[in-house]
Amino acid sequence: MASLSGTAAASASQVLSRNREVKSNGASVAQYRGLKPEGISRLASARTKQTRLISISARKCRTIRAMASPTVTAPKREKDPKKRIVITGMGLVSVFGSDIDTFYNKLLDGESGISLIDRFDASTFPVRFGGQVRDFSSKGYIDGKNDRRLDDSWRYCLVAGRRALADANLGPQVLETMDRSRIGVVVGSGMGGITAFSTGVEALVQKGYKKITPFFIPYSITNMGSALLAIDTGLMGPNYSISTACATANYCFYSAANHIRRGEADIMVAGGTEAAIIPTGLGGFIACRALSQRNDNPKKASRPWDKDRDGFVMGEGSGVLIMESLESAKKRGANIIAEYLGGAITCDAYHMTDPRSDGLGVSSCIAKSLEDAGVSPEEVNYVNAHATSTLAGDLAEVNAIKKVFKDTSEMKMNGTKSMIGHGLGAAGGLEAIATVKAITTGWLHPTINQDNLEPDVTIDTVPNSKKKHEVNVAISNSFGFGGHNSVVVFAPFKP
Q1: Burial class (CB in 10 A: 0-12, 13-18, 19+), 229
Q2: What is the percent of the chain with per-residue pLDDT over 90, rounded to a whole number?
Q3: Residues 61, 252, 259, 386: which is the catalytic one?
Q4: 415 phi and psi, to 5 degrees?
Q5: Has 422 been annotated as catalytic?
Q6: Which residues pair with 266 in a beta bridge?
Q7: Does 246 qualify as catalytic in the annotation?
Q8: What is the C-alpha to C-alpha distance for residues 495 and 490, in angstroms, rounded to an integer?
Q9: Alpha carbon 26 to chain centroid distance?
Q10: Least CB-packed of 136, 144, 356, 442 within 10 Å?
């Protein structure tokens, strides 16, 4: 690219000079330097002296005139079977394996999947643990040659996607009888084939460009999950990838639903995938000072809303849903698991990693998702929260929820990441599956490590033990670096 002009460079310099330190989902870099929450107040007065890092923060939050319209009277829910969207299959790869029931039973038991990393030597890293996928098998899904070449992110995507299709009774023999131009794929990734990319760069630096594999670019770019899944199954409908950091999977659900509503597809395979627990990925988040450093007790490290939280825990995996028009599902006699009522996406338009201080981005996203779903705030009684375990981000989300839901006395809210870590681009996919399982089982998994709850958190977080709860309407939140906000709404299917 051409270099910046003098005016542009000066402008960029002025913007950078106003920056504050990088924050992870709302928690400042300085907050990860071993400070307890009570030490944060001292940081505020010292902000002008803080080292400015890679943040490109804009100005302080301005008053926004065009605010989201509050949902006073909810519009009627969709009745057209061509536009009503149901969930007919689910598939995943997780720290608890690739079986849906095993995954959710582990969550209900409050079992932590966080452990010391052994995929590579992390002994010299200040963070040495994560939600690492172990004993992963692609047998029966990927042939041996491709299995050896593929980045783990795409291996997880292929297995989760194929398992979701099988769960929806859309195996290879069934798909051959269908119009596959009416079936699309939107599976995103926050970081793409990061292992393939890192390996390619290492080959270039150490051995020269002639040693770069021809698969370097194809297996690095973020669209390849959707592409490979379509190639593998012959699905010729809408196909692309969305990359909006940790909000990725929910963006994919929202976009997939809109393809069905517009009549462009009957069935969509949608979700997220990620495999970033490698030296580059771990080191990058350490450099941001975004991660918990509780190396002495990894299973206690991810602790949403707890006063002693000190950052998030990296996770990985893939979560995929089969989203289908009600008309299509009925026509082929599919098993309907739950219903997708609606969703919304917004942007904070404020900062690379901080949430808006006024909470407008998140609260408006929640309100818009309810409007799209045709439900009132009073109907929602379960929130699967983003809840990454960052100092400011956790409370910002709670405050946004309180803005939309005036009465939270009957509401339950939990944090799946307390047990599996933060799956980044896959997080929303895994959490959507947890949300749907809450609907179908009537049981909510606990938020573990709730030992010293923040006093501002007055919503029931299902602390430490599962709870029986009949879900009426549920929302699942995902927010990502860049100010990307996404909320999706699920409910039990009622003909």
Answers
A1: buried
A2: 78
A3: 386
A4: -125, 105
A5: yes
A6: none
A7: yes
A8: 15
A9: 16
A10: 144
pLDDT tens profile 304-360? 999 999 999 999 999 999 999 999 999 999 999 999 999 999 998 888 887 777 778
Rounded-to-integer distance, Cα 138 and Cα 13, Å: 49
Catalytic residue of the set 157, 246, 252, 365: 246
- pLDDT at position 61: 47
**Percent of the chain's residues with pLDDT above 70:** 85
Residue 243: closest CA among 184, 318, 188, 317? 188
Tokens for 139? 């047998």
Is 469 noted as a catalytic residue in this protein? no
SS3 letters across the chain: CCCCCHHHHHHHHHHHHCCCCCEECCEEHHHHCCCCHHHHHHHHHCHHHCCCCCCCCCCCCCCCCCCCCCCCCCCCCCCCCCCCEEEEEEEEEECCECCHHHHHHHHHCCCCCCEECCCCCCCCCCCCEEECCCCCCCCCCCCHHHHHHCCHHHHHHHHHHHHHHHHCCCCHHHHCCCCHHHEEEEEECCCCCHHHHHHHHHHHHHHCHHHCCCCHHHHHCCCHHHHHHHHHHCCCCCEECCCCHHHHHHHHHHHHHHHHHCCCCCEEEEEEEECCCCHHHHHHHHHCCCECCCCCCHHHCCCCCECCCCCECEECEEEEEEEEEHHHHHHCCCCCCEEEEEEEEEECCCCCCCCCCCCHHHHHHHHHHHHHHCCCHHHEEEEECCCCCCHHHHHHHHHHHHHHCCCCCCCEEECCHHHHCECHHHHHHHHHHHHHHHHHHCEECCECCCCCECCCCCCECCECCCEECCCCEEEEEEEECCCEEEEEEEECCCC
Question: What is the arithmetic mean of pLDDT over 371-398?
Answer: 95
From the centroid of its chain, how far is CA 375?
A: 23
Question: Residue 69 above 60 pLDDT?
Answer: no
Q: What is the mean pLDDT of the chain?
A: 87
* Per-residue pLDDT tens digits for 82-134: 999 999 999 999 999 999 999 999 999 999 999 999 999 999 999 999 999 99
More confident residue, 196 or 16: 196
Residue 59 has pLDDT above 70, yes or no: no
Catalytic-role residue among 157, 259, 365, 422:
422
